[in-house]
């Protein structure tokens, strides 16, 4: 699988701070971007958004509108999950990419990063997904890995998918479809199972017994 940095795009050069707003407006008319980077002497200074540019005087210079700039970016070392998060937080389909010395290298397009995501084992490989929850101060990644590997399964992907109050939610993809033993082990370690699984025989058994008891009490 390619490294995410292989998706850095340089097809369109960034706007210069001396360009006119009319040039920026033309760029957004030609390409379906929500934002586009601006540089000054080759240094990234922020992004202009399509929404703002449409409202500005076309005779103005880009540099005169610095207070409208949005200054999000990623580095070549930023992992793909964090890149996706920055796309989402900024409601953008383009993100500038800088190296560790803040040199502008190009940009990522959202479509390319999603394509990269689809090629990761988390989505590409067959397996089962479990979502579990536990108190933040009682949770550890190493424990989650131990639970899964002690049941002879391999982790294809693992990330913190939500944090609410003092609880953390973890999404795990594993390399097997029979999840019941792993689910029961998570329960023994006091994890709450958030996801639903057809092969969770423990829950199914409890439900069947509960239904039987309800039926018996209603006789």
UniProtKB/TrEMBL annotation:
Position of the signal peptide: none
CBS domain location: 9-52, 73-118
UniProt xrefs under InterPro entries: CBS_dom (IPR000644), CBS_dom_sf (IPR046342)
Membrane-traversing stretches: none
A Pfam family recorded for this sequence: CBS
SUPFAM superfamilies xref list: CBS-domain pair
Superkingdom of source: Bacteria
Protein name according to UniProt: CBS domain-containing protein
Organism (species): Flavobacterium helocola
